[in-house]
Each structure stands twice: as C-alpha cells, then as structure tokens.
C-alpha cells in the first residue's frame, strides 16, 4: 500500500506539472497574439522571441521542481542535496565562464531586440541567414543555401540586421560613351517610371551619372523596397532596363540580326 501511495503521488505530480506547463504555454501564446502585443504597445518581433524563451524557461523550472518533489517522495533529504548543488553550481560557474557569458549575452540580445526569430542577419561578416532560434546559450541561423550555423551567443558580435528597415536597391546601367547621353537617360528614366514590383515602397529614381570612362558611361538607378528584398528588386529592375534598351534598338543590348528575326 505504501508503494502504491508513492506511485500515485508521483503520477499526480507529473499530471499537475503537465497541466501547469500547458496553462503557462497558453498564457504565453495569448500574450504573443499580435492583437495583444499591439494593445500593450509591444513590438511583435520581440514578443514572439521572448515568448519562446519564456516557454523554455518555464519548462526547465517545472522539470526541476518535479524532480525535487519526486525525490522527496522517496524520503530523500533535500537540504544537503540543495546545499551541495549550490556549491557545485558555484564551482561550475567559475569553470564555465564562457557558458555564463553566452547566457548573459543571449539575455541582452533578446531584451534589447538586436534581432528576432525570422530576421535575416549577418554575424561578423561571415555568417548570413535567417534566424531560426534564439536560446540563452546559442543562436541558430540558416543560410539561403540551406546551411545551418549554430553560434554561441558570447561569440556574436558586429551583427548586421537586414530585416528592420526598408532597403535600397541600387542598379548601375552601362551605356556606350559614344551614344547620345540625353537619349540614353530618357530610356533609363522611362524604364524607371514604368517599373512596378510588389516589394517596392516607392518609385524608382534616376540619380545621375555615376562614372565616366573612355568606353562607358555608368547611369545609376535606386528604388526603396521592403527589408531584405533589394537583391530580387535589383534583378527585376535590371531586366526591365534591358527590355527598354531592346525596345529602343540600342546596338549594345540588341543586335540588328535579333531585330530582324523578331520582325520576321
């Protein structure tokens, strides 16, 4: 009977801990709701990241308490165990300074909102990709080609975040120096005026002549676009400029033979 009571109490502890974990996760999910974050005037990116951290922290704390309660059911004196754990923890703290550094850095990364899950960042000029997970010890980044980088938070420095503000797509167009400059500028301006893309937040603008050499004149175009879409927008704008020169019959971008084939 005594064994049966102990087993039942352990089952009750496990069930209650499971219920508590579910309740905490639901509370955190409600807090992460975009409407709730807007009502509380919190940034959605930060709320989502902190929400995952709160879930992980709550899970660790609940599991630790469950372990202590289960040990107590076996009549194990917890006072010496906790005292010994404190001493061991202090020793580990001195011996694992890098781990403590990682945890502290991870906490401030989340608190100060340097970057969040889903952001595209570049760390130290070496690792660039989408943030998949931010933990207290490490951050996981997936590159656009599929590689996964797991970086200790203490080693994260010189972070460039491409997902916070709008980006500027820059396109340089090369035309022959022997061409009529005003005519070339009109073609480029016309292509910029007609340019449309779902990722742009403004109109494409012709800035002017970027450089001049004996053989080429470089004309520069810019367009403001959504965060981390400047590469796709630049490729699209390049294609539209090429088509504009083709329509104008520019010999550098469209040969006479191609024009004759298109006419036939």
TrEMBL record:
<dbReference type="InterPro" id="IPR011014">
    <property type="entry name" value="MscS_channel_TM-2"/>
</dbReference>
<dbReference type="InterPro" id="IPR049142">
    <property type="entry name" value="MS_channel_1st"/>
</dbReference>
<dbReference type="Pfam" id="PF00924">
    <property type="entry name" value="MS_channel_2nd"/>
</dbReference>
<dbReference type="InterPro" id="IPR045276">
    <property type="entry name" value="YbiO_bact"/>
</dbReference>
<dbReference type="InterPro" id="IPR023408">
    <property type="entry name" value="MscS_beta-dom_sf"/>
</dbReference>
<keyword id="KW-0812">Transmembrane</keyword>
<feature type="transmembrane region" description="Helical">
    <location>
        <begin position="6"/>
        <end position="28"/>
    </location>
</feature>
<keyword id="KW-0472">Membrane</keyword>
<dbReference type="InterPro" id="IPR006685">
    <property type="entry name" value="MscS_channel_2nd"/>
</dbReference>
<feature type="transmembrane region" description="Helical">
    <location>
        <begin position="77"/>
        <end position="96"/>
    </location>
</feature>
<dbReference type="GO" id="GO:0005886">
    <property type="term" value="C:plasma membrane"/>
</dbReference>
<dbReference type="InterPro" id="IPR011066">
    <property type="entry name" value="MscS_channel_C_sf"/>
</dbReference>
<comment type="similarity">
    <text>Belongs to the MscS (TC 1.A.23) family.</text>
</comment>
<feature type="domain" description="Mechanosensitive ion channel transmembrane helices 2/3">
    <location>
        <begin position="59"/>
        <end position="97"/>
    </location>
</feature>
<feature type="domain" description="Mechanosensitive ion channel MscS">
    <location>
        <begin position="99"/>
        <end position="163"/>
    </location>
</feature>
<comment type="function">
    <text>May play a role in resistance to osmotic downshock.</text>
</comment>
<protein>
    <submittedName>
        <fullName>Mechanosensitive ion channel family protein</fullName>
    </submittedName>
</protein>
<dbReference type="GO" id="GO:0008381">
    <property type="term" value="F:mechanosensitive monoatomic ion channel activity"/>
</dbReference>
<keyword id="KW-1133">Transmembrane helix</keyword>
<dbReference type="Pfam" id="PF21088">
    <property type="entry name" value="MS_channel_1st"/>
</dbReference>
<feature type="transmembrane region" description="Helical">
    <location>
        <begin position="49"/>
        <end position="71"/>
    </location>
</feature>
<keyword id="KW-1003">Cell membrane</keyword>
<dbReference type="InterPro" id="IPR010920">
    <property type="entry name" value="LSM_dom_sf"/>
</dbReference>
